[in-house]
Q: What sequence folds into this?
C-alpha cells in the first residue's frame, strides 16, 4: 500500500513524511530526500518506485520549518523563483537533524528490518552526503548534490558506504567543485563516485528539462545494486 502519512517527532516539533510500502511483509527502509520543490509528485513517484523495488520508502517534508506541505514543480518561472527562495531559507544543519530523527524513527517501523539507506537529489544530494557523515544511516546515495564541496572535510567521519552521481555539465556544480570532490573522495574506501559526461543537473528527474533516460536508468541501476549490497 502506498500513500501513507507518517509523523516524525523532533525536539523542535513534528513534521510529516510520505510513505510507500512494498508487497513484502519485511523490508529495509530507504529515506528519499527531496529536491528544492518540496515533497511533490516527482518525489512521491520516486518513493513509490523504491517501494516497487522492495523497500519501505519514506520521503520526509524537510521544508516544514519554513512552510509545511510545499509541493511545487519545475515547470514555471514563478515556481523556480519560489524553489530558490526555499533553498536559500533552508537550514542545512537542522535539515540533517530532521533526517537523523527520520532515520531513527523508521528503523522501528512495523515490517522494517532495521536497515536504513538514504537517497537524495539536488539539495537532497547534499543532504544524503551529510547523512553519511553525520548520522548512522547504513548507506547513502547522492544524485547531483549541490554544495558537497563545502563539506569534504566531513568525509573522515563516514562510517558506512556512500555513492555519488555527478553530472559533468552540472550548471549548479562547477567543474572546480567536481574536481575538489574527486580529489578529496576518490580514494576513500567507503565512497563510490560515478560521472555522467555531457549530463546537466537533474538528468534523472523525469519530465525535467535535462532528463536523460539512458543515464537516469544507468544511475538508478547502480543505486539499486548499491542498496541491495548494503541494506540486505
A:
Amino acid at each position: 500500500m502506498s500513500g501513507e502519512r507518517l509523523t516524525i517527532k523532533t525536539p523542535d516539533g513534528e513534521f510529516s513524511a510520505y510513505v510507500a510500502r512494498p508487497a513484502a511483509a519485511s523490508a529495509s527502509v530507504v529515506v528519499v530526500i527531496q529536491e528544492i520543490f518540496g515533497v511533490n509528485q516527482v518525489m512521491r513517484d520516486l518513493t513509490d518506485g523504491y517501494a516497487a523495488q522492495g523497500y519501505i520508502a519514506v520521503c520526509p517534508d524537510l521544508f516544514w520549518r519554513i512552510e509545511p506541505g510545499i509541493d511545487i514543480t519545475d515547470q514555471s518561472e514563478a515556481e523556480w523563483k519560489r524553489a530558490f527562495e526555499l533553498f536559500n531559507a533552508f537550514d542545512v544543519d537542522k535539515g540533517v537533524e530532521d533526517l537523523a530523527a527520520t532515520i531513527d524513527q523508521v528503523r522501528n517501523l512495523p515490517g522494517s528490518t532495521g536497515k536504513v539507506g538514504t537517497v537524495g537529489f539536488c539539495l537532497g544530494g547534499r543532504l544524503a552526503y551529510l547523512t553519511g557523515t553525520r548520522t548512522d544511516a547504513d548507506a547513502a546515495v547522492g544524485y547531483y548534490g549541490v554544495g558537497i564541496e563545502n563539506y569534504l572535510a566531513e568525509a573522515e567521519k563516514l562510517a558506512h558506504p556512500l555513492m555519488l552521481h555527478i553530472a559533468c555539465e552540472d550548471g549548479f556544480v562547477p567543474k572546480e567543485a567536481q574536481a575538489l570532490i574527486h580529489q578529496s573522495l576518490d580514494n576513500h574506501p567507503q565512497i563510490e563516485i560515478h560521472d555522467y559526461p555531457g549530463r546537466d543537473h537533474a538528468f534523472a528527474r523525469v519530465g525535467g528539462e535535462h532528463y536523460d533516460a539512458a543515464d537516469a536508468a544507468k544511475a538508478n541501476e547502480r543505486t539499486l545494486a548499491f542498496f541491495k549490497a548494503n541494506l540486505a
In short: The chain has a mean pLDDT of 97. Residues 213-230 form the longest helix (18 residues). The beta strands are 2-10, 13-20, 27-33, 56-60, 112-121, 139-143, 162-167, 191-196. The chain has six helices and eight strands.
